[in-house]
Specification:
Helix 3 packs antiparallel against helix 4 and helix 3 runs parallel beside helix 5. 30% of the residues lie in helices and 28% in strands. It has a five-stranded mixed beta sheet, covered by helices on one side. The protein has five helices and 14 strands. It is globular. 36% of the residues are buried. A hairpin with a 2-residue loop joins strand 6 and strand 7. It has 218 residues and is an alpha+beta fold.
Length: 218
């Protein structure tokens, strides 16, 4: 598992190309970076913590994309299908965003990409959830684990990243992802890299081999 070391980026680096992936941890963002529609959506969220995460996610993503594209923040055009995967209108740069509590990470690539993070201090019934959502052999492994919560979360982020990579959202069930041996989504091999930092575990997923060339902090 990769130990992610995020570094502050003074300005956006050159956009990823080839098999390169960049991962950003979004810790702060200005509400003014959002579009009018995003600001209006944020204003309708009653719970302050949820609203704060929404603002950081949308504003931070817009700031990073503008840096990569070399354009004004408000010229970034993101398409958000109802049940699909958000993407740039020009289709030249791919991204995916994940959050767990107040933590937000985003992955950027020249090809389809998926990312998921989970806080490792979550309190869930790992064994019960594994038997409900995972394949039988995966659930059995977690039941026999000395640390079922850690193993559950590390398996969950792989599955969720693969599902998000597919772009099919809820149409692709977590159970369709096989994690024992080669990770597969409905039979198709998936390349995954798990990572962790400061009480968070995560996974990046792609259809082809990739290399994370930058861990950046916003």
């Amino acid at each position: 598992m990769t130990e992610a070391n995020f570094v502050k980026a003074g300005k956006s680096p050159i956009r990823p190309s080839g098999n390169t992936v960049h991962v950003w941890r979004i810790r702060s963002a200005e509400p003014s970076w959002m579009s009018e529609a995003e600001a209006a959506a944020a204003a309708r969220i009653p719970a302050a913590p949820v609203q704060s995460t929404f603002v950081k996610s949308r504003a931070g993503l817009r700031r990073i994309l503008a840096g990569y594209l070399g354009c004004d923040l408000h010229d970034v055009e993101v398409e958000r299908p109802l049940n699909g995967k958000p993407r740039l209108m020009d289709g030249e740069l791919f991204f995916n965003v994940s959050h767990s509590g107040s933590e937000i990470c985003a992955a950027f690539s020249a090809a389809e990409i998926g990312i998921d993070i989970e806080r490792s201090d979550r309190r869930v019934d790992a064994i019960a959830l594994a038997h409900r959502y995972f394949l039988p052999e995966e659930a059995s492994r977690i039941s026999a684990s000395g640390n079922p919560l850690a193993d559950f979360l590390q398996t969950w982020v792989v599955k969720e990243a693969a599902v998000k990579l597919s772009g099919e959202g809820l149409a692709t069930a977590i159970g369709a992802v096989q994690t024992l041996g080669t990770v597969r989504l409905q039979g198709r091999p998936i390349v995954c890299e798990r990572f962790r930092y400061e009480g968070v575990v995560g996974c990046i997923a792609a259809f082809e081999d990739f290399e994370v060339k930058g861990w950046f902090d916003l």
